[in-house]
Amino acid sequence: MCSLLRSSIAMCVALQLLQLGIVHPSASHLRITHLPGQPQVEFQQFSGYVTVDDRNQQALFFYFAEAEKDAASKPLVLWLNGGPGCSSLGVGAFSENGPFRPKGEALVRNQFSWNREANMLYLETPIGVGFSYSTDTSSYEGVNDEITARDNLVFLKNWFIKFPEYRNRSLFIVGESYAGHYVPQLAELMLQFNKKEKLFNLKGIALGNPVLEFATDFNSRAEFFWSHGLISDTTYKVFTSVCNYSRYVREYYNGAVSPVCSSVMSQVSTETSRFVDKYDVTLDVCLSSVFSQTKVLNPQQVTETIDVCVEDETVNYLNRKDVQSALHARLVGVQRWSACSNVLDYELRDLEIPTITVVGKLVQEGIPVLVYSGDQDSVIPLTGSRTLVHKLAKKLGLKTTVPYRVWFEKQQVGGWTQVYGDILSFATIRGASHEAPFSQPERALVLFKSFLEGRPMPQEF
């Protein structure tokens, strides 16, 4: 029992809160008391920096929203956006599956936030992304997948020092787009580290519209365009024979697009039209900068410009001084926070590193893997992802345990799914874009819940 002496009441209350897992003594300075314009909530939020390299003063920024209810019993989920070079805070947390979305001067609740089911940790990675920084600007040059995976591993190790109560918690890693590289590569390092010191209780990974194998993913775009009526028969033929998309992207990032590829891409661009959002071919709105994480995967013709004709409320919100103060964030070496980094020089040739092989290693190590696709995305279409998952299952000798079928959200078809060996899954989210939780939040939450529980997607409504 607590003493009634005034001097001991505060200590007693603090001890009780600590026992309940409500106060993090080593992370108390990272607690967010209240975000500007935020509605009242019961769950705790934390944000700030974790140093990953003392010598070069490199620090990664995170935002952590504990589960709405029963946080102590819910798993920990690390969310990574792609790019490479785009923000998990601005894109993931504040535009997709976090607890709030900016609206004018305020924040509104996202009723389909993923922290309904898990404790959500959003990481701005690699250094140079969002609020993450290095005081040595040369650190932004030549950043690649290997460096990113290593820094992400160091981040998690040091984050657990600040939040030790999560050290043995079930851990899942989820990401989208170029996180098809980040997530498997980080998971592989975690398993290697565990052989020396058991630290990470990794229970599964999920990859949304991910880059897994350069040629398959990029060249599936032509069939998607053609099957959705975006290009003609003639253009489809040259787009699959004269110059396919993987060749064009390779030439583009090598700085020398051939005349033949330039001609083919010009024709493709003319027919698909700059007034169609390539990340959601059914969307009748202008392209917001929340989709900029995929611009790296969708290099534009020199003559083509994108009209960003909607105000990006997330960018405006995160550039407010009072918001940055509440987040314990600061701008280092840049004037403004941006959804995707303007200072990071990433090794884009790493696009061609196949990570589907790493996914296979994880499955063989007993780590469940879900690959999911918003089915209206033409940037990384579902057809390529489905093909890669099926080939991997065949290579690993995994038999189909859930045959290809529909799944439901309420009384509507939420998408389609297939499971191999009860460990490797593929699912589509019907009507969803590249950023599935943004465009189909309720269906994405159903998929997320099933993934965490290790259950097949709902077969009935």
Automatic annotation (TrEMBL):
The keyword Protease applies. It is an enzyme of class 3 (hydrolase). Residues 1-25 form the signal peptide. It holds the Pfam family Peptidase_S10. PROSITE patterns: CARBOXYPEPT_SER_HIS (PS00560), CARBOXYPEPT_SER_SER (PS00131). GO terms for cellular component: extracellular region; vacuole. The keyword Disulfide bond applies. GO terms for molecular function: serine-type carboxypeptidase activity. Its EC number is 3.4.16.-. Keywords: Carboxypeptidase, Disulfide bond, Glycoprotein, Hydrolase, Protease, Secreted, Signal. Probable carboxypeptidase. Belongs to the peptidase S10 family. This is Carboxypeptidase. It comes from Phaseolus vulgaris.
